[in-house]
């Protein structure tokens, strides 16, 4: 144990060995990230007593983990680290005459793992990830699953000090190339054919008989 000034210790630092190492075979803590020599052990660096160190420990209540396939062309896959935040864009067929469309579908999503690494301190070298795992609500999971199945997903890395929320963004082929969509002229009204008749009386009955129109 190393003596630390009491006023300099973070609030979440362990100061009692009995609390850090509770008695019992099933109450061991697991280290979640690398620590430096003489560094105070924080509650965020270890699991709770007896808790598994899987990725579920990184999820907030009500959130889910969703894996996204990435490659070098996905945007910033070679620079992503756990705890980064990304804006996720979808590119696919928009269903109109404008060609493919790129749309921001989920802004500021938290990355909790890159490939099999869920600790930021374990990732020191730049690698090209194959998958990233993000934290999302069930509704976001459904959106991302549909987007991944119907188009291509790209990521844009959000700065650490950027607290802004990206607004709705959408760009199609015409807007990218500066092409103005041609206005569709309204269809000309179809004039109903003119019908000419004469009235014929047969006793007490009057009937209209069609005849050729002269004008």
From TrEMBL:
Q: Where is the Flp pilus assembly protein RcpC/CpaB domain?
A: 55-157
Name the InterPro entries on file.
Pilus_assmbl_Flp-typ_CpaB, RcpC_dom
- Record's protein name: Flp pilus assembly protein RcpC/CpaB domain-containing protein
